[in-house]
Amino acid sequence: MRFRCIEDQRDTWPVRVLCDALQVSASGYYAWRGRPESARVAANRALLADVRRIHEQHRGRYGAPRIHAAVQAEGRSVSRGRVERLMRRHGIRAATHRRFRVVTTDSKHDLRLPKICSLRPSWLPGRTRSGWPTSPPLPTDEGWLYLCVVLVSTAEQFWATVAE
Hints:
The protein is 44% helix and 11% strand. By secondary structure, the chain is an alpha+beta fold. It has three domains: 2-34; 39-89; 116-163, no CATH class. Pfam families: HTH_21 (PF13276).
């Protein structure tokens, strides 16, 4: 990892300065640079090219299980975990569909539920109370109705209004 960082930055800074900053020897860096690529790294690079090709062929919809099946169908023997690891390391993810949701009402409106300022039920002659609708409209046989709450400040007032 340190040697890869030195390799990326060697055009900007001298190699000796980078080696001193990362506390590695310059001879170790040059030995790393001269080493041939390992068989595993070469195989992973070839597998990654296949994974990207299959992923693009299927418009980004395939995840690791399907890509693994497709790679095996092409005749390559590779484990699913290895495909998953390569995909995760290189940020390859399956695009997911948004779930279809039935939307029958427009819930993004600016309408507010109105405050009903004076309720005069037939059993309360001459008295008024404040009430607020507390539910969405409820369907009934006679049409749509709101459930309303009437606020009474004390128990005595409540029983007095019920008794009248």
